[in-house]
Specification:
The structure holds 2 protein chains of 2 kinds. Chain A is mainly α. Helix content of chain A is 54%, strand content 9%. Chain A has 5 helices and 2 strands; from the N terminus they run βαααααβ. Classes of the chains: A mainly alpha, B mainly alpha. The interface between A and B is medium-sized, with 16 and 14 residues.
């Protein structure tokens, strides 16, 4: 698991989108969206900004970095 | 060209290479398989560029990169561990002939052709590297969430 938490699932539900819909809109595979939501994969900066723009929000709102104590 | 056609062509090319390998052994022409492999790689690169959607997204590229890197490291270790002792053996017996055995030979013994054994070891190494690649690919795909079940 990565140290990044994200609210993609929440935003996806708010916009009534399936993982496949979001994946197609962002030009990635559905597995990538699934992996990001589960915290198994950290997206690139470019994909993170694309997601934030798509949901009309900021990267900081969508992704939260939790440093290890 | 469609993606599936590309994969079918890759399979056909692999079978052709195996046949070419057999032919080059039979005809004692190592250059045949050399040029066959070079031609196959060039054809692969050209065909791959003509196919839309063959390259995956960033997560798949990361998996490919990690797999390639790990395979390279593992292959280097395997090759060094096997090939250096083989080189020592080759330098020790330049004619690639085994010394006469110092132990009693059983009545029926299988003749050991040293050069054939070396070739066999090299082929086993090649197959091992393919298995290592597949193993690492499965591992990294699992690590980066490729095999997870959809929650929807």
């Amino acid at each position: 698991m990565t140290r990044m938490k994200n609210k993609i699932k929440v935003y996806r539900a708010m916009h009534d989108l399936t993982q496949d819909n979001l994946a197609q809109a962002l030009g990635v595979t559905r597995q990538t969206i699934l992996a990001i939501e589960k915290g198994k994969y950290d997206p690139s900066l470019e994909l993170a900004f694309k997601m934030a723009r798509y949901f009309n929000t900021t990267v900081e709102e969508l992704f939260v970095y939790e440093p290890q104590e | 060209m469609k993606k599936n056609t590309f994969y079918l062509l890759c399979g056909a090319a692999a079978i052709l290479l195996v046949l070419l390998f057999y032919l080059s052994v039979e005809l004692k022409l190592p250059w045949l398989i050399f040029f066959g492999i070079v031609a196959a790689v060039v054809a692969y690169i050209i065909c791959r560029k003509k196919i839309a959607g063959i390259s995956g997204d960033e997560r798949e590229m990361l998996i490919d990169m990690k797999t390639a890197s790990a395979t390279l490291k593992a292959a280097a270790v395997v090759y060094l561990a096997v090939n250096i002792p083989l080189a020592v053996y080759a330098f020790s017996f330049p004619q690639m002939i085994l010394p006469p055995p110092h132990f009693p030979v059983p009545p029926v013994s299988i003749p050991l052709v040293s050069l054939g054994s070396v070739a066999l070891i090299e082929l086993v190494l090649l197959a091992a590297v393919l298995f290592i690649y597949v193993g690492f690919h499965v591992y990294y795909a699992k690590k980066y969430g490729g095999d997870d079940e959809d929650e929807e």
